[in-house]
Design goal:
Length: 594
């Protein structure tokens, strides 16, 4: 009866695990015992997993031991389940969710047979393998010692992985490398800002400072071969500058954006020096094929396309890759109230912001009978579209783009193509404009893309068109239905804020990097996280109170502590005297080694 009830609840939460537990056999080393107060207990091999006197009282003491850590945490990771006495008690103490790591499914089956777990199963996520699920920042790790003693190798691996994840969540030193110029430059800046907002120490290598010099190469000589050679030398210089910066700051991760000037030789050097590297290829792999050269040199590779691109990456030996859609910077792209004069300047029934790619020049000639404004560069002012082009085809800055998105009744978003006369019928990735227009609470009509259904509810949060006739029909419909238009735009904005900010993307990127086997570089251990040192020493101990003074620094090393003591005044505490004694012994040892 107990087993059936437990399994029925688990089936609604984790049917796969429920099936594993139902099918699990009992190992020979597992014994069921009865405690002195008549409660069940189990023994596996030589390890008794709970008190043979009073396992409930033992569980209460276990919770009390970890109480301070539990109260500070957003989520609790428990190493070991046993029969779950400590988990039942834990769930009485806190309302946060619990992740339980337990490698032995036979022990879980025994617990499901003997204990009524139905009150807490909805709050527990069980992990029986060695893959760590996505965890919130601020999670705590607590141990059921008998379970850890029973499976030491498994729990040592889990503990090590959780420590790496905790370091990631607390904040890494991340170098973000942007391109010299191009569409991924603003994305690089957004990534750097988002990572900083998440609490990471960010070093942004802004290569746009080299743009004018780089573009001036064509004016030096008309010889194409010599131009290419000069560009190659310039990229090598910029790439070596990244290496020099890495040596200087010792990042935990180098995160490069599409077109970042990092050569294969530099990437090889970074790998040799155990600097983890990641790359976000925010371009169409069918048009830009340089990914074939660089992808194998990155430890982690992110795309905005799947399908054929994934197969191509596998074909060149890349294993650690994943799709990471674009996003919006909601502190920049946001709803903006405009004055009457601004509405006259930036407003129109139909608007488009972007460069004059081949498919757009052809397609937009079919919209000339609407009140239509085109903003951006690379348009032919002498074409039929000339009267629609604003500011003589100048580049539009971000501040004005936000105003345009807010002012237009309908923003047309047609993804670029160099070889289609309109909508690309095989279009997959979703461009930044899709998220940015939505973040501004602008209404948009976007060409149908295979990936868009993964990101928005089509028809509720965003509206797609498949060809010119469909677009014209929808423009007329939504111009005549402003309330419906505004409701869709509002839902789109809410969806972006909920799921598609750069902060969320960067958090997802780091979670993916971790899941792909990220290891902290050797220099990350130079100094320990103060909070962890205080926890290990005990908050109320003399050592714990002493170490707590370094909390604002985040991390502290032995030499930092000694330097702080030597710079201080007054009588030394007992802890300070011990540190100075340890420093003296350390120096004597180093002299002997020489």
């Amino acid at each position: 009866m107990i087993f059936r009830d437990n399994i029925e609840v688990l089936k609604t939460i984790n049917p796969e695990l429920a099936g594993l537990i139902v099918g699990a056999g009992k190992r020979d080393d597992l014994q069921i015992l009865t405690t002195r107060n008549g409660l069940p207990c189990i023994k596996a091999g030589n390890v008794t997993l709970h008190s043979l006197y009073n396992p409930v009282k033992e569980a209460e003491s276990w919770v009390e031991h970890y109480r301070e850590k539990i109260e500070k945490s957003s989520l609790i990771c428990v190493l070991g389940f046993g029969l779950g006495y400590h988990i039942l008690e834990l769930c009485k103490t806190t309302e946060v969710d619990v992740v339980v790591f337990e490698p032995r499914v036979d022990i879980l089956r025994t617990a499901f047979e003997l204990m009524d777990l139905t009150p807490v199963l909805a709050r527990i996520r069980f992990v029986t393998g060695d893959e760590i699920p996505r965890l919130k920042k601020g999670f705590a790790v607590v141990e059921h010692k008998p379970s850890v003693n029973l499976s030491p190798e498994y729990f040592e691996k889990i503990r090590s992985m959780l420590n790496v994840l905790k370091s990631i969540k607390k904040g890494l030193k991340i170098m973000v490398v942007g391109p010299i110029y191009g569409g991924s430059l603003p994305v690089a800046g957004s990534c750097a800002n988002a990572l900083s907002n998440l609490g990471h120490e960010v070093d942004f290598v802004d290569n746009s400072r080299y743009k004018d010099v780089f573009l001036s190469i064509d004016s030096i000589t008309d010889d194409k071969a010599h131009q290419d050679r000069l560009r190659e030398m310039f990229v090598s210089f910029a790439s070596e500058a990244v290496i020099a910066r890495c040596i200087e700051i010792k990042p935990d991760l180098v995160f490069a954006l599409a077109q970042a000037p990092l050569t294969e030789a530099s990437l090889h050097k970074l790998r040799e020096n155990k600097v983890p590297t990641a790359f976000w290829f925010v371009e169409d792999f069918r048009l830009m094929d340089y990914w074939q050269r660089v992808a194998p040199f990155y430890d982690y590779f992110f795309t905005i396309q799947r399908g054929q691109f994934f197969e191509s990456l596998k074909g060149i030996g890349v294993r650690n890759f994943s799709c990471l859609p674009l996003a919006a910077s909601v502190d920049i792209h946001r709803k903006t109230e405009l004055s009457g004069d601004e509405l006259k300047i930036y407003g129109s029934d139909v608007s488009f912001v972007g460069a004059g790619y081949y498919n757009r020049r052809k397609f937009f000639e079919g919209l000339l009978d609407f009140d239509f404004k085109i903003w951006g560069n690379e348009w032919n002012l002498n074409s039929p579209l000339g009267r629609c082009i604003q500011r003589s085809g100048e580049r539009i800055d971000t501040e004005d783009i936000v105003k345009i998105f807010s002012a237009a009744k309908i923003n047309v978003n047609l993804h670029s193509s160099t070889y289609h006369e309109g909508v690309n019928p095989y279009g997959d990735f979703v461009n930044p404009r899709t998220f940015e227009i939505s973040a501004c609470e602008g209404f948009q009509l976007v060409d149908a893309r295979t990936e868009i259904q993964e990101l928005f509810k089509v028809g509720e949060e965003i509206v797609c068109f498949k060809d010119l006739s469909d677009l014209r029909h929808k423009i007329r419909y939504y111009l005549n239905n402003p309330d419906e238009r505004k409701a869709i735009a509002r839902k789109a904005m809410e969806r972006v804020k909920k799921d598609h900010t750069y902060e969320l993307r960067m958090e997802e990127m780091l979670d993916l990097v971790f899941s792909m086997g990220y290891e902290l570089p050797p220099w990350h251990s130079e100094g320990a996280i103060v909070e962890e040192l205080v926890d290990a020493a005990g908050v109320e101990t003399e050592l714990g109170r002493y170490l707590a003074r370094f909390t604002d620094k985040g991390k502290v090393g032995f030499d930092d502590i000694v330097e702080d003591i030597k710079a201080g005044e007054g009588a030394l505490s007992g802890v300070e005297r011990i540190f100075l004694l340890m420093d003296s012994i350390k120096q004597q040892y180093e002299v002997k080694k020489q």
